[in-house]
Amino acid sequence: MMLELLPQQLANGLALGSTYALVALGLTLIFGVLLIPNFAHGEFYMLGAFITYALVASGLNFWLAMTTAVVLVVLIGWIVDRVVFQPVAAAPGHGSGLSLMISALAGSIILQQLATIIWGTEARTIPAPMTGMVRTSLFTITYLQITIIATLAVAWTAVWLVLHRSRLGLAIRATSQNRDAALLMGIRTTRVRLATFALGAALGAVAGALLGATFPIYPSMGVNPVLKAFVVLVIGGIGSLPGAIVGGLVLGMVEVMVAGYGSSQFQDIGTFLILVAVLLIRPQGLFGRAQVER
Amino acid sequence: MSLLEIKGVEARFGGVVALAGVTLDIPEGVIFGLIGPNGAGKTTLINVVSGLVKPTAGSVTFAGEGDGPWPIARSVSRGIVRTFQQTRAFLGLTVRENLRIAAVSSPDPSCIEELVEACGLGPVLDRTAGDLPYATLRHLGIALALALKPRLLLLDEPAVGLEAAQVERLGALIRRWHASGITVLLVEHNVRFLMEMSDRVAVLDRGAVLFEGTPTECQERQEVIDVYLGRRHADAAD
Prior knowledge:
Chain A: Keywords: Amino-acid transport, Cell membrane, Membrane, Transmembrane, Transmembrane helix, Transport. By secondary structure, chain A is mainly α. Chain A contains 11 helices and 2 strands; from the N terminus they run ααααββααααααα. Chain B has a domain at 1-69 and 177-237: P-loop containing nucleotide triphosphate hydrolases (Rossmann fold). Chain B has 9 helices and 10 strands. Chain B starts with a strand and ends with a helix.
């Protein structure tokens, strides 16, 4: 049925999946290393979009505006960590997952309200930094979509290089596996925490700025993507970076296919059917390792 | 001269008293064995000395510095290093990566090569730590601790789950590094191993020190036999 549309659907799915993967990459990093279910990640994404919007509106070039937004969101991320998460993590037993999740929701709401006070609830759009598209006989794809896909590739490579080719990355990976053992090995976990939040928040901000040039932006725009990103984490395997990429792309593809060949009303049903299927068949996710108690 | 002085250390978790005023002096250069029944407070005492658990009362003096115990990072920088009953290795990283972490923190990274040889890690350098056989994983944990060049090494049940030949190899490894000047606090349920290894022994019971002396004296003391050794011997006879 309408097989000739398949290449176009795949291209659209790849672009949508790349945005999910970008958001999920930052989320999985913070979750995997610091065990924080950071619902406020959606607000890093939202602030990335709004700060880029505000700077572009004041006359700055889009790419400079995005870079500045990334730096500012990293600073905001550190403040959120200091104010929202560290006091809970310092509690006896390093804070339970539930208290961290409630703190994350509180942080998310506060940031949304602050954005509402500053920018109001009206939806806005960031002028696209580029227009035009590539047309082939099989599909068309916009330059912006290509940029988003390329950004995902660059972000993934950069994060991989940091984690696997630097001392800091080794310390991050060690801390993610066993925080107490990392402390006992003399690893400066405070530095690891700062670096992880910086990377995570930066990825969220980049995703927000790029998506803000495609879709309308509003203070609660981060809620849906962060929920989707949590689904991506479960599909790909919590804390797994390849899992975030593949999970994001799978989710994007499925949503586009369901909407294209079925109905857009069933789009979210497709998402959650995959979630349930993964939980039943491979609960640790596609790239997750089953945990063995020793 | 004492390297570690533990004075009146108490640790309470809610209504549970894990340590009820423990006082111990551990001289520099010895292997000091710590035994006692399950729940006697042995691991809690190691947790206090290494900075994982804050005591509710009491103090720790290490190498003449008397304001301890200190948080983990500060304890490590003073030379107090520990192993865990399970493992202190990073299970998702390769053995080589585990050792790279140790090399970053080690005051003398050149010792790592010697540790690889002594702990038999050469053939498994590129294997993920989580896939190692149990005994090799325990040796990796000890290698990581030794790489930090501790003045005081706290070993929490290093022989648990090992076969006789592996225990013997572990003993040789501990002796080799002890001979280089490391003081060892050894917690162990394998009484024969502990008595063979230790210069001095203390027995903990219900959070308090029941006895302290040489291994020979320890095995002759009736209250130790009643509380711990008798039970162990009876278990062994079963």
